[in-house]
Amino acid sequence: MMKLEDLNTASAADFVALLDGTYEHSPWIAVRAAAARPFKTVAALKVALARVVREASIDEQLGLIRAHPELAGKAAVAGELTAESTNEQQKAGLTACTPEEFARLQQLNADYNARFGFPFILAVRGPRGLGLTRQEIIATFERRLRAHPDVERAECLRQIHRIAEIRLDDKFGIKPALGEQLWDWAAALAVHSEDEAFLTCTYATPTHTAVAEQLMAWMRDCGFDDVSRDAVGNVVGVYNGTGDQRLLTGSHYDTVRRAGRFDGRLGIFVPMLVVRELHRAGKRLPFGIEVVGFSEEEGQRYAATFLASSALTGAFDPTWLEQSDAHGVSLRDAMRAAGLPGKVAAITALKRDRSRYLGFVEVHIEQGPVLDSLDLPLGIVTSINGSRRYTGEIIGLASHAGTTPMGQRRDAAAGVAELILFCEERAAAVPDVVATVGMLEVPSGSINVIPGRCRFSLDLRATTDAARDALDADVRAELDAICQRRGLSFTLQPTVAANAAPSDAAWQTRWEAAVAELGLPIHRLPSGAGHDAMKMHELLPQAMLFVRGGNGGISHNPLESVTVDDAELAVQAFTQLLELSGGNTT
């Protein structure tokens, strides 16, 4: 079994020889990475190798891609694959394809090569490391065949890095057991869903309750001293320390519709595993660890977004209890049906005493492409963007599409279209500012009728409140100007107003030190998405750690994914954070 010390002390030639087979027929990667020695950890080695490829020329990158064989291709049939590729294709069952599957793969290989000019690359052992099914491989092949060539070339390189990571794990005898447990928990929890085809878990449904019960059972198995479900459905696990103060952490377990497995839930599993390891070792920290699985963050069933974390900060609005969902069920009644009291007094009692807590930290999948594009497993959040959200409608005049001259139309949809383009241009002009129209509807629209009404949404975000408010003012002014110019009217209803939440300097520094201790580069980035941490920011100092997401960083989507290796690093970083926070164990 290889040791990191052997690599660090080897001659340049021996270094290259030891890494032979890591990157298919491409020793130049190891040649260049040798200069970055010594490597503090294997994770640091992986990042250094990936950096060499990222900094290489396009021709060199294409050469690396073309050095790989097709899946179930001619080389596999002829037995001409490297030992590593043979092992990987066998583990994915590609050597046992049915005639129909083999024919489909051959056609996909031909179509892919014709479109891109290089072979399709997929780490067939997958994010879990056990191997994707042939059905998953074919579905991925079909999906990626539609990608833009530049996007696909970058994805091939990321898949090559994943292949190299698995091969390095094999060389070093690394088994990311904590990451595997996290991945398996995520898969098991995703079995509970309101939709048979896609993961959906909305607030106070039977599915939601089942997830809460499973989390509580796992927390008890992990060795938490106290596990409970509170008045808003939060799952709370406490692992006592030798002192009275606690570190608060966690994330949400509800999901959007057609969700991924890791959004929110990753931030519950990571500290659960840390507590499990402390308990197994019989160790206590000077402070307790309180892990909260927040029951609601996504705002999918009720407009009372962040109702779970609002209860902990004392910001729960009692009028929320009268809100109704799409089926006319009030929040109060939904709570009671889920076994929760639905009473203001019980919810008010959940407010945390600030003096008892050191702060709030959250681990979360990035939900964006930045870390994935930089080949970095972890990132440090500097601030959570402030946001303004609206639902609106432009009202014009529905009239005949054939008989109404262009200059005499009052087209509501055209007005919204103009607003969309303004939002895109205005947001792009300022760093870290974004604007999105995510919902667009022409009620009772017809192909031969000029739209008389058009409903839309607005989502405006920025890293500072000042930048967000400037964007907000400009967009609303432009909406008014468009409608006046086009002879339209509009309504605009605010739905969310959230202030930016800059990370606490001390806790951010601890996260940075924890990541550095793993031998990884420090990369800082803002969070464009909202998180429970931005609500907890109103009560406690907070800071977040991001974990790279696969498939280009996609989230709120069934393709959302993390690898077991990245999950393992997140658990290790959290453990380091505790040490750096004075958590010397006893």
TrEMBL record:
Keywords: Hydrolase, Lyase, Manganese, Metal-binding, Purine metabolism. Its EC number is 4.1.1.97. The keyword Metal-binding applies. Coiled coil: none annotated. Its cofactor is Mn(2+). The keyword Disulfide bond does not apply. Pfam families: M20_dimer, OHCU_decarbox, Peptidase_M20. Residues 386-482 form the Peptidase M20 dimerisation domain. Residues 8-169 form the Oxo-4-hydroxy-4-carboxy-5-ureidoimidazoline decarboxylase domain. InterPro entries: Amidase_Cbmase, Bact_exopeptidase_dim_dom, OHCU_decarboxylase, OHCU_decarboxylase-1, OHCU_decarboxylase_sf, Peptidase_M20, Peptidase_M20_dimer. It comes from the Bacteria. GO terms for molecular function: 2-oxo-4-hydroxy-4-carboxy-5-ureidoimidazoline decarboxylase activity. Homodimer. PANTHER family: ALLANTOATE DEIMINASE-RELATED. Belongs to the peptidase M20 family. This is 2-oxo-4-hydroxy-4-carboxy-5-ureidoimidazoline decarboxylase. It comes from Pelomonas candidula.
